[in-house]
């Protein structure tokens, strides 16, 4: 029953279910909307159930469709894993690989590393999506989510990729005018430039130092959802910022910024999150190993002290 055409139809159906759109699924697979509609109709006939409610404006899953999409995802993951074990994919991985990451980490590091990975493994087809939110790997069809901080979500496996602490810094001019804080608690009395990456707490800084963990609620006249913006404001002398050490290495070396409370930092390691089934895939393991190597010592590595 599960021949290659049907496996292809199940993949199409999973994409339609993920996007709730025939047009979007057709675009993703490089097919026409008519082709996708015909293949889904054939799948419904084969299974003997109605999978989707269709109107002129929207598509939604039927109850049977919700059941089929759960089974289809599990079946396709098992088929891909079997093919990995029966082939040379560990040496020459091939197939599609869907990766998500945050905007800043993705643009500065993951995207150029993906370019290098594609040159090393030309048979991989890689989709990288940059979103400032936590993705649902299973429901949205991602193999890996490269994130700062590992969230222990049910059914996910965290693969440690790189060490990347966040540090406090400010322009020397700001510190000369407002003073240099001597404790974490004193940060509450300063102008702090706050940004939030994905769904992290806004305006709450939790730092690790000689005395263990310390948490402070900070405020300031300027805030943004983009780290490049707050870094610019910090260089302009508007306050203290907490940001990844790799992103301020050059500014610190050139004296444009100065470390604040240098004995304190916020651990913010980089992790690759995968579903348990995906973790067994050769192409996923190859990707994780490649990211580890490149982020540690490659051309686009995270800065190390």
From TrEMBL:
SUPFAM superfamilies: Periplasmic binding protein-like II, Winged helix' DNA-binding domain. GO terms for molecular function: DNA-binding transcription factor activity; sequence-specific DNA binding. This is LysR family transcriptional regulator. Belongs to the LysR transcriptional regulatory family. Keywords: DNA-binding, Transcription, Transcription regulation. Residues 5-62 form the HTH lysR-type domain. One of its GO terms (biological process) is DNA-templated transcription. InterPro entries: LysR-type_TF_proteobact-type, LysR_HTH_N, LysR_subst-bd, WH-like_DNA-bd_sf, WH_DNA-bd_sf. The keyword Transcription applies.
């Amino acid at each position: 029953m599960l021949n290659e055409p049907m496996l292809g139809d199940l993949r199409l159906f999973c994409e339609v279910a993920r996007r709730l759109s025939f047009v979007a699924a057709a675009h993703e697979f490089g097919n026409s909307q008519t082709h996708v509609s015909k293949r889904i109709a054939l799948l419904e006939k084969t299974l003997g159930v109605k999978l989707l409610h269709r109107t002129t404006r929207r598509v939604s899953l039927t109850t049977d469709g919700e059941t089929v999409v759960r089974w289809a995802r599990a079946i396709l993951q098992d088929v891909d894993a079997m093919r990995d074990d029966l082939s040379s994919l560990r040496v020459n991985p091939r197939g599609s690989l869907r990766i998500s990451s945050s905007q800043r980490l993705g643009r500065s590091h993951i995207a150029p590393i993906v370019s290098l990975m594609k040159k090393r493994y030309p048979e991989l087809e890689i989709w990288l999506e940059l979103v400032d939110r936590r993705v649902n790997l299973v429901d949205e069809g991602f193999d890996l989510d490269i994130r700062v901080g590992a969230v222990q979500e049910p059914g996910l496996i965290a693969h440690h990729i790189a060490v990347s602490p966040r540090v406090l810094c400010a322009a020397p001019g700001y510190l000369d005018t407002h003073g240099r804080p001597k404790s974490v608690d004193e940060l509450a009395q300063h102008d702090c430039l706050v940004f939030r990456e994905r769904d992290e707490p806004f305006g709450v800084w939790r730092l690790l130092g000689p005395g263990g963990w310390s948490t402070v609620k900070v405020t300031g006249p300027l805030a943004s959802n983009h780290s490049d913006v707050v870094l610019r404001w910090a260089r302009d002398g508007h306050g203290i910022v907490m940001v990844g050490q790799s992103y301020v290495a050059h500014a610190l070396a050139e004296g444009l910024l100065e470390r604040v409370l240098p004995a304190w930092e916020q651990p913010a390691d980089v992790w690759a999150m995968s579903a348990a089934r995906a973790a067994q895939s050769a192409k996923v393991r190859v990707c994780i190993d490649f990211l580890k190597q490149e982020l540690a010592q490659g051309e686009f590595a995270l800065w190390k002290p």
